[in-house]
Protein backbone atom coordinates (compact mmCIF):
# COMPACT_ATOMS: atom_id res chain seq x y z
CA UNK A 1 0.00 0.00 0.00
CA UNK A 2 2.27 1.98 1.05
CA UNK A 3 7.99 3.09 0.49
CA UNK A 4 7.69 0.40 3.13
CA UNK A 5 9.99 1.74 5.78
CA UNK A 6 12.08 4.90 5.70
CA UNK A 7 11.61 5.72 2.05
CA UNK A 8 7.85 5.64 2.23
CA UNK A 9 7.54 8.01 5.15
CA UNK A 10 10.26 10.33 3.87
CA UNK A 11 9.03 10.54 0.30
CA UNK A 12 5.40 11.03 1.30
CA UNK A 13 6.40 14.21 3.11
CA UNK A 14 8.32 15.55 0.12
CA UNK A 15 5.68 17.69 -1.53
CA UNK A 16 7.65 18.60 -4.61
CA UNK A 17 10.49 20.84 -5.57
CA UNK A 18 10.44 24.54 -6.22
CA UNK A 19 12.46 25.80 -9.13
CA UNK A 20 14.69 28.82 -8.65
CA UNK A 21 15.20 29.18 -12.40
CA UNK A 22 13.72 32.24 -14.00
CA UNK A 23 11.84 31.84 -17.28
CA UNK A 24 12.27 34.64 -19.75
CA UNK A 25 9.51 35.80 -22.02
CA UNK A 26 11.47 34.38 -24.93
CA UNK A 27 11.34 30.90 -23.41
CA UNK A 28 7.62 31.20 -22.88
CA UNK A 29 6.88 32.54 -26.35
CA UNK A 30 9.20 30.29 -28.33
CA UNK A 31 8.51 26.90 -26.80
CA UNK A 32 6.15 25.31 -24.28
CA UNK A 33 7.22 25.10 -20.66
CA UNK A 34 8.94 21.78 -19.94
CA UNK A 35 8.79 21.00 -16.20
CA UNK A 36 11.52 18.38 -16.51
CA UNK A 37 14.01 21.05 -17.61
CA UNK A 38 13.37 23.13 -14.49
CA UNK A 39 13.75 20.53 -11.77
CA UNK A 40 16.70 21.16 -9.49
CA UNK A 41 17.54 17.97 -7.62
CA UNK A 42 20.54 17.60 -5.34
CA UNK A 43 20.33 13.81 -5.33
CA UNK A 44 18.14 12.61 -8.24
CA UNK A 45 17.17 8.96 -8.38
CA UNK A 46 18.25 6.75 -11.25
CA UNK A 47 15.74 4.61 -13.12
CA UNK A 48 16.78 1.52 -11.14
CA UNK A 49 16.63 3.47 -7.90
CA UNK A 50 13.10 4.63 -8.68
CA UNK A 51 12.00 1.05 -9.35
CA UNK A 52 13.44 0.05 -5.97
CA UNK A 53 11.54 2.87 -4.25
CA UNK A 54 8.24 1.75 -5.77
CA UNK A 55 8.91 -1.85 -4.84
CA UNK A 56 9.60 -0.87 -1.24
CA UNK A 57 6.42 1.21 -1.26
CA UNK A 58 4.22 -1.71 -2.31
CA UNK A 59 6.02 -4.74 -0.88
CA UNK A 60 5.20 -4.10 2.75
CA UNK A 61 2.99 -5.73 5.34
CA UNK A 62 0.19 -5.91 2.76
CA UNK A 63 1.81 -8.84 0.98
CA UNK A 64 1.45 -10.88 4.17
CA UNK A 65 -2.32 -10.36 4.00
CA UNK A 66 -2.67 -11.78 0.49
CA UNK A 67 -3.33 -15.41 1.57
CA UNK A 68 -6.26 -14.11 3.65
CA UNK A 69 -7.48 -12.28 0.55
CA UNK A 70 -7.37 -15.53 -1.45
CA UNK A 71 -9.37 -17.21 1.33
CA UNK A 72 -12.17 -14.77 0.53
CA UNK A 73 -12.01 -15.39 -3.22
CA UNK A 74 -10.74 -18.90 -3.88
CA UNK A 75 -7.67 -19.92 -5.88
CA UNK A 76 -8.97 -19.28 -9.40
CA UNK A 77 -10.99 -16.15 -8.58
CA UNK A 78 -8.09 -14.84 -6.48
CA UNK A 79 -5.52 -15.30 -9.24
CA UNK A 80 -7.73 -13.58 -11.81
CA UNK A 81 -8.82 -10.89 -9.35
CA UNK A 82 -5.23 -10.09 -8.36
CA UNK A 83 -4.27 -9.57 -12.00
CA UNK A 84 -7.29 -7.37 -12.65
CA UNK A 85 -6.82 -5.33 -9.47
CA UNK A 86 -3.13 -4.92 -10.24
CA UNK A 87 -3.90 -3.71 -13.75
CA UNK A 88 -6.47 -1.18 -12.50
CA UNK A 89 -4.19 0.11 -9.72
CA UNK A 90 -1.32 0.49 -12.20
CA UNK A 91 -3.55 2.33 -14.65
CA UNK A 92 -4.86 4.80 -12.04
CA UNK A 93 -1.29 5.59 -11.02
CA UNK A 94 -0.45 6.09 -14.70
CA UNK A 95 -3.27 8.57 -15.30
CA UNK A 96 -2.44 10.44 -12.08
CA UNK A 97 1.23 10.89 -13.04
CA UNK A 98 0.33 11.80 -16.62
CA UNK A 99 -2.17 14.42 -15.42
CA UNK A 100 0.41 15.79 -12.98
CA UNK A 101 2.98 16.22 -15.75
CA UNK A 102 0.41 18.03 -17.89
CA UNK A 103 -0.79 20.43 -15.19
CA UNK A 104 2.84 21.22 -14.36
CA UNK A 105 3.07 22.66 -17.87
CA UNK A 106 -0.07 24.76 -17.33
CA UNK A 107 1.03 25.96 -13.90
CA UNK A 108 4.67 26.34 -14.99
CA UNK A 109 5.91 24.39 -12.00
CA UNK A 110 8.66 21.77 -12.12
CA UNK A 111 6.77 19.21 -10.01
CA UNK A 112 3.68 18.68 -7.89
CA UNK A 113 2.57 16.48 -5.02
CA UNK A 114 -0.51 14.26 -5.10
CA UNK A 115 -2.70 16.89 -3.42
CA UNK A 116 -1.26 19.71 -5.56
CA UNK A 117 -2.00 17.71 -8.70
CA UNK A 118 -5.62 17.13 -7.69
CA UNK A 119 -6.12 20.81 -6.92
CA UNK A 120 -4.39 22.00 -10.10
CA UNK A 121 -6.44 19.61 -12.26
CA UNK A 122 -9.55 21.49 -11.20
CA UNK A 123 -7.88 24.93 -11.33
CA UNK A 124 -6.77 24.38 -14.94
CA UNK A 125 -9.82 22.36 -15.91
CA UNK A 126 -13.26 23.53 -17.06
CA UNK A 127 -14.25 27.04 -15.96
CA UNK A 128 -17.21 25.72 -13.97
CA UNK A 129 -14.96 23.87 -11.52
CA UNK A 130 -11.86 26.08 -11.44
CA UNK A 131 -12.85 27.57 -8.10
CA UNK A 132 -12.91 24.09 -6.59
CA UNK A 133 -9.14 23.63 -6.91
CA UNK A 134 -8.34 24.67 -3.36
CA UNK A 135 -11.12 22.53 -1.91
CA UNK A 136 -10.02 19.48 -3.91
CA UNK A 137 -6.47 19.89 -2.66
CA UNK A 138 -7.68 20.01 0.94
CA UNK A 139 -9.96 17.00 0.44
CA UNK A 140 -7.06 14.98 -0.94
CA UNK A 141 -4.80 16.12 1.89
CA UNK A 142 -7.34 15.14 4.54
CA UNK A 143 -8.06 11.83 2.80
CA UNK A 144 -4.36 11.01 2.77
CA UNK A 145 -4.09 11.81 6.47
CA UNK A 146 -7.11 9.67 7.37
CA UNK A 147 -5.80 6.82 5.22
CA UNK A 148 -2.52 6.74 7.08
CA UNK A 149 -4.28 6.94 10.43
CA UNK A 150 -6.08 3.78 9.32
CA UNK A 151 -2.74 2.22 8.40
CA UNK A 152 -1.43 3.04 11.88
CA UNK A 153 -4.42 1.22 13.40
CA UNK A 154 -3.55 -1.82 11.27
CA UNK A 155 0.02 -1.66 12.52
CA UNK A 156 -1.05 -1.64 16.18
CA UNK A 157 -3.21 -4.74 15.65
CA UNK A 158 -0.34 -6.40 13.77
CA UNK A 159 2.17 -5.76 16.57
CA UNK A 160 -0.24 -6.90 19.27
CA UNK A 161 -1.26 -10.05 17.37
CA UNK A 162 2.36 -11.01 16.73
CA UNK A 163 3.37 -10.72 20.38
CA UNK A 164 0.28 -12.63 21.50
CA UNK A 165 1.07 -15.47 19.09
CA UNK A 166 4.58 -15.74 20.54
CA UNK A 167 3.92 -15.19 24.25
CA UNK A 168 0.75 -17.25 24.73
CA UNK A 169 2.51 -20.63 24.14
CA UNK A 170 5.41 -19.56 26.36
CA UNK A 171 3.19 -18.48 29.26
CA UNK A 172 0.07 -20.66 29.00
CA UNK A 173 -0.98 -19.76 32.57
CA UNK A 174 -0.98 -16.04 31.80
CA UNK A 175 -2.88 -15.62 28.55
CA UNK A 176 -3.89 -12.01 28.00
CA UNK A 177 -6.50 -10.67 25.60
CA UNK A 178 -5.53 -9.07 22.30
CA UNK A 179 -6.93 -5.79 23.64
CA UNK A 180 -4.43 -5.83 26.47
CA UNK A 181 -1.58 -6.49 24.06
CA UNK A 182 -2.74 -3.46 22.05
CA UNK A 183 -2.53 -1.36 25.22
CA UNK A 184 0.98 -2.71 25.91
CA UNK A 185 2.13 -1.00 22.69
CA UNK A 186 0.98 2.44 23.88
CA UNK A 187 4.00 3.67 25.82
CA UNK A 188 6.67 2.42 23.35
CA UNK A 189 4.77 3.97 20.44
CA UNK A 190 4.27 7.28 22.25
CA UNK A 191 7.98 7.47 23.00
CA UNK A 192 9.26 6.65 19.51
CA UNK A 193 6.74 9.01 17.90
CA UNK A 194 8.18 11.95 19.82
CA UNK A 195 11.18 11.80 17.46
CA UNK A 196 10.58 14.71 15.10
CA UNK A 197 13.52 14.49 12.73
CA UNK A 198 13.46 11.67 10.24
CA UNK A 199 17.24 11.41 10.12
CA UNK A 200 17.24 10.00 13.65
CA UNK A 201 15.04 7.14 12.46
CA UNK A 202 17.37 6.19 9.61
CA UNK A 203 19.19 3.49 11.64
CA UNK A 204 15.84 1.95 12.63
CA UNK A 205 14.77 2.01 9.00
CA UNK A 206 17.95 0.23 7.92
CA UNK A 207 17.41 -2.45 10.56
CA UNK A 208 13.78 -2.88 9.53
CA UNK A 209 14.69 -3.24 5.85
CA UNK A 210 17.14 -6.02 6.71
CA UNK A 211 14.76 -7.79 9.07
CA UNK A 212 11.89 -7.86 6.58
CA UNK A 213 14.01 -9.90 4.19
CA UNK A 214 14.71 -12.43 6.93
CA UNK A 215 10.99 -12.63 7.74
CA UNK A 216 10.02 -13.20 4.10
CA UNK A 217 12.60 -15.98 3.68
CA UNK A 218 11.40 -17.78 6.82
CA UNK A 219 7.74 -17.30 5.88
CA UNK A 220 8.19 -18.61 2.34
CA UNK A 221 10.07 -21.62 3.69
CA UNK A 222 7.06 -22.66 5.77
CA UNK A 223 4.62 -21.77 2.98
CA UNK A 224 6.27 -24.20 0.56
CA UNK A 225 7.02 -26.87 3.19
CA UNK A 226 4.88 -30.00 2.54
CA UNK A 227 2.48 -28.05 0.35
CA UNK A 228 -0.99 -29.67 0.13
CA UNK A 229 -2.72 -30.29 -3.18
CA UNK A 230 -4.54 -27.27 -4.66
CA UNK A 231 -7.60 -29.52 -5.10
CA UNK A 232 -8.07 -29.39 -1.32
CA UNK A 233 -8.84 -25.67 -1.52
CA UNK A 234 -11.82 -23.77 -2.82
CA UNK A 235 -11.48 -22.56 -6.39
CA UNK A 236 -14.15 -19.85 -6.24
CA UNK A 237 -15.43 -18.61 -2.88
CA UNK A 238 -18.90 -17.29 -2.17
CA UNK A 239 -19.59 -13.97 -3.84
CA UNK A 240 -20.50 -12.50 -0.46
CA UNK A 241 -16.82 -12.78 0.52
CA UNK A 242 -15.46 -11.06 -2.59
CA UNK A 243 -15.66 -7.54 -1.11
CA UNK A 244 -13.15 -8.60 1.56
CA UNK A 245 -10.84 -9.89 -1.16
CA UNK A 246 -11.05 -6.72 -3.24
CA UNK A 247 -10.55 -4.29 -0.37
CA UNK A 248 -7.63 -6.32 1.02
CA UNK A 249 -5.89 -6.39 -2.36
CA UNK A 250 -6.40 -2.64 -2.79
CA UNK A 251 -4.94 -2.05 0.68
CA UNK A 252 -1.96 -4.25 -0.11
CA UNK A 253 -1.11 -2.87 -3.56
CA UNK A 254 -1.79 0.82 -3.26
CA UNK A 255 1.32 2.97 -2.89
CA UNK A 256 -0.43 6.05 -4.24
CA UNK A 257 1.00 8.30 -1.54
CA UNK A 258 4.59 7.87 -2.72
CA UNK A 259 4.12 7.74 -6.47
CA UNK A 260 4.42 11.49 -7.11
CA UNK A 261 7.46 11.95 -4.83
CA UNK A 262 9.25 9.08 -6.61
CA UNK A 263 8.48 10.57 -10.04
CA UNK A 264 9.44 14.05 -8.81
CA UNK A 265 12.89 12.85 -7.74
CA UNK A 266 13.80 11.00 -10.93
CA UNK A 267 16.82 12.11 -12.92
CA UNK A 268 14.91 11.23 -16.10
CA UNK A 269 11.15 11.50 -15.36
CA UNK A 270 10.26 10.52 -18.93
CA UNK A 271 11.19 6.95 -18.03
CA UNK A 272 8.57 6.69 -15.28
CA UNK A 273 5.70 6.03 -17.69
CA UNK A 274 5.73 4.18 -20.98
CA UNK A 275 6.84 0.69 -21.88
CA UNK A 276 8.66 -0.81 -20.13
CA UNK A 277 8.97 2.23 -17.83
CA UNK A 278 9.58 2.41 -14.07
CA UNK A 279 5.90 2.04 -13.18
CA UNK A 280 5.21 -0.98 -15.38
CA UNK A 281 8.36 -2.85 -14.36
CA UNK A 282 7.75 -2.30 -10.65
CA UNK A 283 4.07 -3.24 -10.80
CA UNK A 284 4.70 -6.44 -12.81
CA UNK A 285 7.07 -7.55 -10.05
CA UNK A 286 4.62 -6.50 -7.33
CA UNK A 287 1.61 -8.23 -8.90
CA UNK A 288 3.63 -11.41 -9.49
CA UNK A 289 4.89 -11.58 -5.90
CA UNK A 290 1.48 -10.80 -4.44
CA UNK A 291 -0.12 -13.49 -6.56
CA UNK A 292 2.49 -16.09 -5.61
CA UNK A 293 2.33 -15.40 -1.86
CA UNK A 294 -1.47 -15.25 -1.86
CA UNK A 295 -1.94 -18.38 -4.00
CA UNK A 296 0.50 -20.67 -2.23
CA UNK A 297 -0.18 -19.20 1.22
CA UNK A 298 -3.85 -20.10 0.86
CA UNK A 299 -2.97 -23.58 -0.44
CA UNK A 300 -0.80 -24.15 2.63
CA UNK A 301 -3.16 -22.91 5.35
CA UNK A 302 -6.59 -22.90 3.71
CA UNK A 303 -9.45 -21.32 5.64
CA UNK A 304 -7.28 -21.21 8.78
CA UNK A 305 -5.09 -18.49 7.29
CA UNK A 306 -5.00 -15.31 9.36
CA UNK A 307 -4.81 -11.59 8.57
CA UNK A 308 -1.04 -11.89 8.30
CA UNK A 309 0.38 -15.21 7.20
CA UNK A 310 3.21 -14.87 9.72
CA UNK A 311 0.59 -15.49 12.43
CA UNK A 312 0.05 -18.98 10.95
CA UNK A 313 3.66 -20.04 11.36
CA UNK A 314 4.07 -22.98 13.79
CA UNK A 315 4.20 -22.14 17.49
CA UNK A 316 6.72 -24.90 18.30
CA UNK A 317 9.41 -23.79 15.84
CA UNK A 318 12.01 -21.30 17.04
CA UNK A 319 12.58 -19.78 13.59
CA UNK A 320 8.86 -19.29 13.06
CA UNK A 321 8.41 -17.58 16.42
CA UNK A 322 11.49 -15.47 15.76
CA UNK A 323 10.00 -14.36 12.45
CA UNK A 324 6.84 -13.18 14.24
CA UNK A 325 8.86 -11.11 16.70
CA UNK A 326 11.06 -9.67 13.95
CA UNK A 327 7.99 -8.72 11.94
CA UNK A 328 6.45 -7.04 14.98
CA UNK A 329 9.67 -5.08 15.42
CA UNK A 330 9.67 -4.08 11.75
CA UNK A 331 6.09 -2.83 11.99
CA UNK A 332 6.94 -0.96 15.19
CA UNK A 333 9.66 1.01 13.40
CA UNK A 334 7.41 1.47 10.38
CA UNK A 335 4.67 2.93 12.59
CA UNK A 336 7.03 5.72 13.62
CA UNK A 337 7.90 6.42 10.00
CA UNK A 338 4.34 6.35 8.67
CA UNK A 339 3.36 8.55 11.61
CA UNK A 340 5.02 11.44 9.80
CA UNK A 341 2.28 11.50 7.15
CA UNK A 342 -0.58 12.67 9.42
CA UNK A 343 1.84 14.75 11.49
CA UNK A 344 3.03 16.55 8.36
CA UNK A 345 -0.47 17.94 7.82
CA UNK A 346 -0.75 18.94 11.49
CA UNK A 347 2.66 20.63 11.39
CA UNK A 348 1.73 22.62 8.30
CA UNK A 349 -1.47 23.73 10.01
CA UNK A 350 0.46 24.87 13.09
CA UNK A 351 3.02 26.75 11.00
CA UNK A 352 0.28 28.40 8.95
CA UNK A 353 -1.37 29.70 12.11
CA UNK A 354 1.89 30.75 13.72
CA UNK A 355 4.04 28.88 16.20
CA UNK A 356 2.89 29.70 19.76
CA UNK A 357 5.26 29.74 22.69
CA UNK A 358 3.89 26.39 23.85
CA UNK A 359 4.35 24.79 20.42
CA UNK A 360 6.56 22.10 21.91
CA UNK A 361 3.87 21.07 24.38
CA UNK A 362 1.26 21.16 21.61
CA UNK A 363 3.43 18.86 19.49
CA UNK A 364 3.85 16.40 22.35
CA UNK A 365 0.13 16.46 23.08
CA UNK A 366 -0.90 15.96 19.44
CA UNK A 367 1.58 13.15 18.89
CA UNK A 368 0.44 11.41 22.05
CA UNK A 369 -3.19 11.94 21.10
CA UNK A 370 -2.74 10.37 17.66
CA UNK A 371 -1.07 7.31 19.18
CA UNK A 372 -3.85 7.04 21.79
CA UNK A 373 -6.46 7.23 19.05
CA UNK A 374 -4.90 4.49 16.91
CA UNK A 375 -4.26 2.20 19.88
CA UNK A 376 -7.83 2.74 21.12
CA UNK A 377 -9.35 1.89 17.73
CA UNK A 378 -7.10 -1.15 17.41
CA UNK A 379 -8.05 -2.39 20.88
CA UNK A 380 -11.75 -1.96 20.10
CA UNK A 381 -11.54 -3.82 16.76
CA UNK A 382 -8.53 -6.17 16.91
CA UNK A 383 -9.42 -8.45 13.98
CA UNK A 384 -6.46 -7.82 11.68
CA UNK A 385 -8.13 -9.19 8.54
CA UNK A 386 -11.22 -7.01 8.98
CA UNK A 387 -9.26 -3.88 9.88
CA UNK A 388 -7.10 -4.25 6.75
CA UNK A 389 -10.21 -4.78 4.65
CA UNK A 390 -11.97 -1.73 6.10
CA UNK A 391 -8.99 0.59 5.60
CA UNK A 392 -8.54 -0.66 2.04
CA UNK A 393 -12.23 -0.28 1.23
CA UNK A 394 -12.80 3.17 2.70
CA UNK A 395 -9.52 4.98 2.19
CA UNK A 396 -7.38 3.36 -0.48
CA UNK A 397 -10.22 2.67 -2.90
CA UNK A 398 -10.94 6.40 -2.67
CA UNK A 399 -7.35 7.64 -2.88
CA UNK A 400 -6.07 5.04 -5.31
CA UNK A 401 -9.03 4.61 -7.66
CA UNK A 402 -11.78 7.21 -7.32
CA UNK A 403 -9.75 10.41 -6.98
CA UNK A 404 -7.36 9.68 -9.91
CA UNK A 405 -10.36 8.83 -12.12
CA UNK A 406 -12.13 12.07 -11.16
CA UNK A 407 -8.99 14.19 -11.60
CA UNK A 408 -8.23 12.70 -15.03
CA UNK A 409 -11.81 13.23 -16.22
CA UNK A 410 -12.09 16.81 -14.96
CA UNK A 411 -8.76 17.94 -16.38
CA UNK A 412 -9.40 16.48 -19.84
CA UNK A 413 -13.10 17.40 -19.99
CA UNK A 414 -12.59 20.38 -22.29
CA UNK A 415 -9.37 19.09 -23.83
CA UNK A 416 -9.36 15.52 -25.09
CA UNK A 417 -11.48 12.61 -23.86
CA UNK A 418 -10.27 10.37 -26.68
CA UNK A 419 -12.18 8.74 -29.54
CA UNK A 420 -15.89 8.40 -28.71
CA UNK A 421 -15.10 9.88 -25.26
CA UNK A 422 -13.64 6.54 -24.17
CA UNK A 423 -11.65 8.26 -21.36
CA UNK A 424 -14.90 9.38 -19.77
CA UNK A 425 -16.53 5.93 -19.91
CA UNK A 426 -13.36 4.19 -18.76
CA UNK A 427 -13.03 6.50 -15.75
CA UNK A 428 -16.73 6.06 -14.94
CA UNK A 429 -16.10 2.30 -14.84
CA UNK A 430 -13.11 2.78 -12.51
CA UNK A 431 -15.22 5.07 -10.33
CA UNK A 432 -17.97 2.44 -10.13
CA UNK A 433 -15.44 -0.23 -9.14
CA UNK A 434 -14.13 2.11 -6.45
CA UNK A 435 -17.60 2.81 -5.08
CA UNK A 436 -18.51 -0.89 -5.13
CA UNK A 437 -15.28 -1.72 -3.27
CA UNK A 438 -15.93 1.08 -0.80
CA UNK A 439 -19.55 0.28 -0.02
CA UNK A 440 -19.43 -3.52 -0.11
CA UNK A 441 -16.01 -3.79 1.54
CA UNK A 442 -16.92 -1.37 4.30
CA UNK A 443 -20.29 -3.07 4.88
CA UNK A 444 -18.87 -6.59 5.14
CA UNK A 445 -15.91 -5.42 7.28
CA UNK A 446 -18.05 -3.43 9.70
CA UNK A 447 -20.58 -6.25 9.92
CA UNK A 448 -17.76 -8.64 10.84
CA UNK A 449 -16.39 -6.21 13.41
CA UNK A 450 -19.79 -5.85 15.03
CA UNK A 451 -20.15 -9.62 15.21
CA UNK A 452 -16.68 -9.94 16.75
CA UNK A 453 -17.43 -7.18 19.24
CA UNK A 454 -20.77 -8.73 20.22
CA UNK A 455 -19.20 -12.18 20.46
CA UNK A 456 -16.44 -11.01 22.78
CA UNK A 457 -18.98 -9.09 24.85
CA UNK A 458 -21.17 -12.19 25.28
CA UNK A 459 -18.12 -14.29 26.07
CA UNK A 460 -17.19 -11.95 28.92
CA UNK A 461 -20.73 -12.23 30.32
CA UNK A 462 -20.61 -16.03 30.05
CA UNK A 463 -17.33 -16.12 31.94
CA UNK A 464 -18.79 -13.84 34.61
CA UNK A 465 -21.97 -15.94 34.92
CA UNK A 466 -20.02 -19.18 35.16
CA UNK A 467 -17.81 -17.70 37.84
CA UNK A 468 -20.92 -16.59 39.78
CA UNK A 469 -22.54 -20.03 39.53
CA UNK A 470 -19.35 -21.63 40.73
Automatic annotation (TrEMBL):
InterPro entries: AA_transpt_TM. It is found in: Membrane. Residues 45-446 form the Amino acid transporter transmembrane domain. The keyword Protein biosynthesis does not apply. Its main location: membrane. Pfam families: Aa_trans. The chain crosses the membrane at residues 48-70, 76-97, 146-163, 175-193, 200-224, 244-262, 274-298, 318-341, 361-381, 387-411, 423-446. The keyword Transmembrane applies. It is a multi-pass membrane protein. One of its GO terms (cellular component) is vacuolar membrane. Keywords: Membrane, Transmembrane, Transmembrane helix. This is Amino acid transporter transmembrane domain-containing protein. It comes from Diatraea saccharalis (sugarcane borer).
Amino acid sequence: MFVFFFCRAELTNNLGFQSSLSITSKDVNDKPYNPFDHRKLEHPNSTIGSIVHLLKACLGSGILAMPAAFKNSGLVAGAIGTLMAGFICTHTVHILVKTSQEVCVDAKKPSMSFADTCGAAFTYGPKRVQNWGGAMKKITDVSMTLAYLGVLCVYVVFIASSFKEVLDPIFPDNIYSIQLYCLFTLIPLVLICQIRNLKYLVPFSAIANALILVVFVITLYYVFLDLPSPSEREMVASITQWPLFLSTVIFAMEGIGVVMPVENEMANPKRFLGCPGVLNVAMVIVISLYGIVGFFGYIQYGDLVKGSITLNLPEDAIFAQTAKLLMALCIFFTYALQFYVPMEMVTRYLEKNGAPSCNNLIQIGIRTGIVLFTVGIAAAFPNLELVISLVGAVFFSTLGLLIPAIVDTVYHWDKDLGPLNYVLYKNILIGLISVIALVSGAYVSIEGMIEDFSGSHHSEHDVHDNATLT
